[in-house]
């Protein structure tokens, strides 16, 4: 173990123990973070640092917890640029999907790729995410669709997960994303196989920590989702749901009933469901890059906030609806389009995102998404004078230095 220390003008801790109404991010001015590969040991003002330690000094800059991207489809290969151009010229996302493009186009690319090729693409993508200040990334399968392809994607994700020089990876089996051509006339069997065979197989092999389902019009029904999610819950996997991206078909009630870890998208959600999410304290994962790309209206953020729903923000990185790998861009849009405060956006991409992934929460040892004694040493140094500025410089990286589990994974 090597003891290290970094200092800067503002240490944004996101530590709930330090947060106040006036300072929701728990900022330590002229602060120092002491850490090693296991965890952070101390955070406090430079004047109180003892033991003759000389920190690496980042001057008038900002240090935050490493960002946590709680919703990505980053294990894709190939490109859907032609489809994007068609959409920008007026074609509809769901019409393209119904005619064999969209998710099915990515399925063909996964089927044609080797596990090594998927691993390599995912690794480069994660490297670029690290250069944007990201230290944890949830990665979903869901472009395999057939058992072989799903296995291949999740095996590639597992390989990348072993690398300490990339962001920490949380694997999710996206069990119901789109119906492959082969299952057109055997829809029930497709869903049943996911629930009874693939969930136990992939969960048992530790290839997935979460199971996700896409509950929407032109996707899967609540009944279909229930079969898969109940099977996942039974073997101790966490549950995530894509709900209300295009229409409200009732996914939130299922998420609340089963105690899901997150509900994601929520462009279409009823007031009653917002209240239920608030009571259950299930984080909403907001995906502003996707609704921006699709030209949609934002989710009812003011209502979600008023109901006490924890708000996370994620990139949704995917080749169809969110053609970006940038969580900072998602934060910029969350502020500009969704009306989050910069503080809410930052918490939504650190502590709240970590909480939705089971990586932070009351009493949880070695949490991520915050800088506090005992937390994992994941941090980003920004070449910016204030944390509010993180949600401002669109489209470029202002990150100087990124540490994950005490090791430098990016330096500019
Ligand atoms: O989160 N909503 C479904 N899944 C993705 C899009 C997938 C794709 O188009 O490849 C999303 O937006
Ligand atoms: Fe998604």
What does this protein look like?
- The protein is an alpha/beta fold and 412 residues long.
- The protein has two domains: 107 residues, Roll (Urease, subunit C, domain 1), CATH 2.30.40.10; 290 residues, Metal-dependent hydrolases (TIM Barrel), CATH 3.20.20.140.
- It has 14 helices and 16 strands.
- Strands 1, 2, 3, 4, 5, 14, 15 and 16 form an eight-stranded mixed sheet that branches.
- Helix 4 packs across helix 5 and helix 6 runs parallel beside helix 7.
- The longest helix is centred in the middle third of the chain and has 18 residues.
- The protein starts with a strand and ends with a strand.
- The relative contact order is 0.16.
> What count of domains describes the coordinates?
2
CATH domain fold name of the largest domain? TIM Barrel
Name given to the CATH architecture of the largest domain:
Alpha-Beta Barrel
Helices and strands, in N-to-C order?
EEEEEEHHHHEHEHEHEHEHEHHEHHHEEE
**Bound small molecules, deduplicated:** N-(iminomethyl)-L-glutamic acid, fe (iii) ion
CATH homology group of the largest domain: Metal-dependent hydrolases
Which structural class matches the secondary elements? alpha/beta
Number of helices: 14
Strand content: 15-25%
């Amino acid at each position: 173990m090597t003891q290290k220390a970094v200092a800067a003008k503002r240490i944004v801790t996101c530590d709930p123990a330090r947060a106040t109404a006036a300072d929701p991010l728990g900022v330590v001015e002229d602060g120092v973070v002491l850490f090693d590969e296991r965890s952070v040991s101390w955070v406090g003002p430079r004047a109180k640092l003892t033991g003759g330690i000389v920190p690496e000094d980042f001057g008038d800059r900002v240090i935050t917890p490493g960002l946590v991207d709680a919703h990505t489809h980053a294990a894709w290969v190939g490109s859907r640029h032609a489809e994007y151009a068609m959409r920008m010229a007026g074609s509809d996302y769901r019409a393209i999907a119904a005619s064999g493009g969209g998710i099915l186009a990515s399925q063909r690319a996964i089927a044609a790729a080797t596990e090594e090729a998927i691993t390599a693409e995912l690794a480069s993508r994660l490297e670029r995410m690290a250069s944007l200040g990201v230290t944890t990334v949830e990665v979903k399968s869901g472009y395999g669709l057939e058992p072989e392809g799903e296995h291949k994607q999740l095996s590639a994700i597992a390989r990348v997960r072993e690398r300490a020089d990339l962001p920490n990876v949380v694997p999710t089996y996206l069990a119901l994303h789109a119906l492959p051509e082969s299952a057109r006339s055997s829809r029930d069997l497709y869903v049943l196989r996911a629930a009874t065979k693939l969930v136990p197989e992939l969960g048992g092999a530790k290839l997935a920590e979460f199971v996700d389902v896409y509950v929407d019009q032109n996707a899967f029904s609540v009944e279909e989702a229930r079969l898969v999610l109940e099977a996942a819950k039974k073997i101790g996997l966490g549950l995530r749901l894509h709900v209300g991206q295009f229409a409200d078909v009732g996914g939130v009630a299922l998420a609340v009933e089963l105690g899901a870890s997150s509900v994601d998208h929520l462009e279409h959600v009823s007031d009653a469901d917002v209240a239920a999410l608030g009571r259950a304290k299930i984080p909403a994962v907001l995906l502003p890059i996707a609704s921006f790309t699709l030209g949609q209206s934002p989710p009812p953020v003011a209502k979600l906030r008023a109901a006490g729903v924890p708000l996370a923000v994620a990139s949704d990185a995917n080749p169809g609806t969110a053609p970006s790998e940038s969580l900072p861009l998602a934060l910029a849009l969350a502020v500009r389009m969704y009306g989050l405060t910069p503080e809410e956006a930052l918490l939504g991409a650190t502590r709240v995102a970590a909480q939705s992934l089971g990586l932070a929460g009351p009493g949880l040892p070695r949490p991520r998404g915050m800088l506090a004694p005992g937390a994992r040493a994941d941090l980003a140094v920004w070449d910016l004078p204030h944390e509010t500025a993180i949600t401002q410089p669109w489209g470029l990286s202002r990150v100087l230095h990124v540490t994950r589990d005490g090791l430098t994974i990016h330096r500019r």
